[in-house]
Design a protein that fits this description.
mainly alpha; globular; single chain; 75% helix; 348 residues; A middle domain of Talin 1; Four Helix Bundle (Hemerythrin (Met), subunit A); 9 helices
């Protein structure tokens, strides 16, 4: 009998130990499972947002740099006659050259402070290759802009002070200096522009029907509309920026009116969208700030295309062209401000 009791005790002990072992293994599996599948959090792609913000700001820089440099050279060509035709009796009034030479100098100074002296550009962040490439390009471009500014200021003073009437010996050397300084600036600018276009972030098209709340949906509709407008604007500008007096303007004119149509379509979508009090500022900014800049651009563009073909001389063409560039840059600045405000307030 005592043998049977002892055997029963052994069996019971093994059963209890086996049960504990099974429970321990089950617990280990559950714990392991929990460790392998952590709870995911919904976060914004900060790197992507930084790249987009960096790109938009540098597009603004590129447009301003191009506007400043090209204005100087255009008005040098139109204000100052060809060297071989200048005599002591020539009447030369380089008012526009003086004005835009000063503007170029101010542009250089402002961007040097912004990039090299703790300003806005120095604080922008982007993916390493993008940031290094574009900051390097701009650092190499700025000294050449400054050189072009110094030369153009010297040349404009030579003619505005009527020094050529007493000394014609500088006419040809100054012409060569201007063209060499412009060529160096233009080469560096073209590299900067080409590199910037390589880093254009892939546009994200949102699906508002999948938004988590109405405010998110409204914001996504706004961003989609702004993206459509910007794509159409950039398509136009690529066909416009290299136009010269008596150029074929067919392609640029077609894309200009395509832009007008796309803006109208996008505007209608926004006006039909509901906005809560929290995000209604997006609609108001579009109506009061961005739309006014687009309307000015459209009015300027229609005037340009109506008059460009009949421009009596290159000087008239250049004035209308520069008005167009200025209106375009104002619109892009407005775009960057409004899209930046949306991205600053959204949390998704």
């Amino acid at each position: 009998m005592s043998g049977l009791k002892f055997t029963a005790i052994i069996i019971l002990s093994l059963t209890i130990l086996g049960g504990c072992s099974i429970l321990t293994k089950v617990k280990e599996k559950l714990t392991s499972s929990k460790e392998k599948v952590p709870e995911k959090e919904k976060t914004k792609d900060v790197s992507s947002d930084n790249d987009l913000n960096f790109y938009n700001k540098y597009i603004e820089v590129m447009n301003k740099v191009q506007e400043s440099g090209e204005n100087v050279y255009r008005y040098y060509i139109t204000d100052i006659p060809a060297p071989e035709s200048i005599t002591k009796n020539s009447f030369i009034l380089p008012v526009s050259l003086q004005i835009y030479s000063g503007t170029l100098g101010s542009t250089v100074k402002n961007y040097k402070r912004s990039l090299l002296d703790g300003g806005e550009l120095s604080k922008l962040k982007a993916s390493p290759e993008m940031q290094t490439t574009l900051e390097t390009d701009l650092k190499e471009l700025l000294p050449l802009m400054e050189e072009f500014s110094v030369v153009s200021e010297k040349v404009s003073k030579y003619y505005s002070n009527k020094d050529y009437k007493d000394d014609l010996s500088k006419v040809k050397p100054y012409d060569e200096e201007m063209k060499n300084a412009y060529d160096k600036y233009k080469t560096a600018f073209n590299k900067f522009s080409a590199d910037l276009k390589k880093f254009k972030p892939e546009r994200k098209i949102y699906d508002p029907s999948k938004a988590s709340d109405p405010d998110e949906a409204s914001s996504q509709i706004m961003l989609n509309a702004y993206g459509d407008i910007l794509d159409a604007a950039e398509n136009f500008y690529e066909s416009f920026e290299n136009l010269k007096y008596n150029s074929d303007m067919t392609d640029a004119k077609t894309k200009f009116y395509e832009f007008e149509m796309k803006f109208g379509e996008s505007k209608n979508i926004i006006l039909k969208t509901e906005f809560s009090e929290k995000v209604k500022f997006m609609k108001y900014n579009f109506e009061d700030y961005f739309t006014s800049s687009v309307e000015k651009f459209l009015d300027t563009g229609k005037n340009f295309f109506e008059k460009a073909r009949d421009s009596k001389n290159e000087k008239t063409f250049n004035k209308n062209y520069n008005d167009m560039v200025n209106a375009y840059n104002l619109m892009i600045t407005s775009y960057n401000t409004n899209v930046g405000n949306i991205n600053m307030t959204r949390t998704w």
